[in-house]
Amino acid sequence: MTDVEFASRMAIDPTSGAMMDTADLRENFLIEDMFEAGKIHLTYTHYDRMIVGGATPANKALVLEAIKPTGTKQFLDRRELAVFNIGAAGTVSVAGTDYALGHRDMIYVGMGAGEVSFSSADVKDPAKFYIISAPAHRTCPTQLVQIDDAKRLDLGAQETSNERSIFQFVHPEGVETCQLVVGMTMLAPGSVWNTMPCHVHERRSEAYLYFGLAETARVFHFMGEPDETRHLLVKNEQAVLSPHWSIHSGAGTANYTFIWAMAGDNVDYTDVDMVNLEDIR
Fold first, then answer.
1. Is the pTM of this model over 0.90?
2. CATH code for the domain of 197
3. What's the structural domain count of the chain?
4. Which domain holds residue 138?
5. Residue 28 Ramachandran class (φ > 0 left, ψ -120 to 50 alpha, else beta)
6. pLDDT digits over 113-168, tens only?
């Protein structure tokens, strides 16, 4: 019996997105329940064929099996993978080699690397592995990146409520990939805004995972075309899919952390089309 469950999300065009009510927006763009003890939950998207999911190993290791939409025997036959640990200590095993991941560490696994499995150091305090995958055309080396080794950028200010630290884990000067670009942003206490002024990027799709929130806290995630915006109310450990035509910005009821992951035509972190605040509607 498989421990992997999956769902698919079709790509939505901006005209259709502008006509959606709250329930439709949540059904198409919000991923609510990824971290269930003893399960791997995956969402196969038609945005650059990204897969977004979570693995929460409990009393046994969980194997990342291939799912029907990939059309392959093993999950990584034609894909690359980035895995963040947002929980307690755990291990990611790649073709029999174990990699220990602490809280907020990441591992990149290249195409064709073999079987991947997940385990927790303490079943009473499990690891929570956030999974991002995209198609690949060549093999890049598997590499563990601990949070202290990520490229750090400190930006923003308390006066504008966006004092934050950006940790670049997968980028051209660091871990080599085919198309994944992955990082994490931590907002300082008292800061709530991310990605404002906002942008779109025609050549890439993106996913945001929000975490580090109290049970009663929320993030208002803003999406849509710049002149036709919408919002999603997001809880702790939920993810949002962001098409290439949509802005992706947020404001929380408290500070939070989010993981951003992109896939598409290039790996240039700066390849964005900025949107002026006066043009947002």
1. yes
2. 2.60.120.10
3. 1
4. 4-279
5. alpha
6. 999 999 999 999 999 999 999 999 999 999 999 999 999 999 999 999 999 999 99
